[in-house]
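Ticket #4471: structure export looks truncated?
Reporter: QA, pipeline team
Priority: medium

Steps to reproduce: submit the single chain below to the structure queue and open the exported record.
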Amino acid sequence: MEDIIDDYSEDDDLIGEQIQRETTLNQRYEHFRFVADKGQTLVRVDKFLVDRIENASRNRIQSAADCDCVLANGKPVKSNYKVKPCDIITVVMDRPRREFEILPEEIPLSVVYEDEDVLVVDKQPGIVVHPGHGNYTGTLLNALAWYMKDKPGFNVNDPRLGLVHRIDKDTSGLLVIAKTPNAKTNLGNQFLNKTTKRQYLALVWGNVKDNEGRIECNIGRNPKDRLQYIAMPGSEEGRYAATNYRVVERFGYTTLLECHLETGRTHQIRVHLKHIGHTLFNDSRYGGDQILKGNTTTKYRQFIFNCFEICTRQALHAQTLGFTHPVTGKDLFFESPLPIDMEGLIEKWRKLNLL
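Actual output as written to the record:
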């Protein structure tokens, strides 16, 4: 059994199903279908699919093709097959696509704003947003199912309703939830058209040179580690991403930044800041849980370890969220205070007084 494709859509929606090499085609189920445009230029099918299936790595698609699980017009093809105009490309697996039933769980939910159309919540760190591989319970959507269980017309399992965007498990801050299909369509278009306003606070390693800047380069999955994403400057691989930042406060060996998103890619801030040499403080997935700046004295090392104990996750907070109300047309803007762990971490760096 092999993992072929996993983690569809922003960290949590699982599409990954294991494939047995010996499974025959008539035992397989279609998971994805794409019809090539009339103007489609010749392109390898593995590249064609990796550009269309979010969070699918090229090597896993190649493995799927080796298992006869990638079809062109109903026939298995290898990964070097060239997609032609109007080709029907499908990915099949040995079992139906798994669907998760989100069950109500009595989990505290911090509601910032609510009306008949939208709900804005302030997510605490450590909570996964959506059930997925390894996190089937205890998620924000389980909490939402409990909160909305007595409200007619809302079903958290209805894909036409619910979350419009996501943040990582260990990132805190604001999220908007659509309570009607029209609200979700409208808000989704706002995110797609980049008219929403999102600002994050991030504590990063190092003294950021410029007071403000812009990071613009594609982001894609790290071929050496499927749990990581990497910046791909100058490459056509991955997906376009742009992040603007401004220095809020300097602490010598670390810097507090405001980050404004133009796009919303998986791990975007974490990857972009690492790309410019300023990994998020205590971001274990990207190496920020090591001492990356400073001296080697025992006192300083103890200071850093104490900081890690105060804020046990990446120091990233979705501080503000602004959007146009999908029904009234009114501009709404919300701000979340720093959670206790990041507030304590920043105060500890202030007291160190390296500048």
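Status: closed, not a bug. The export was complete when the record was re-opened. Leaving a note from the reviewer for reference: The chain has three domains: 25-93, 111-192, 197-352.
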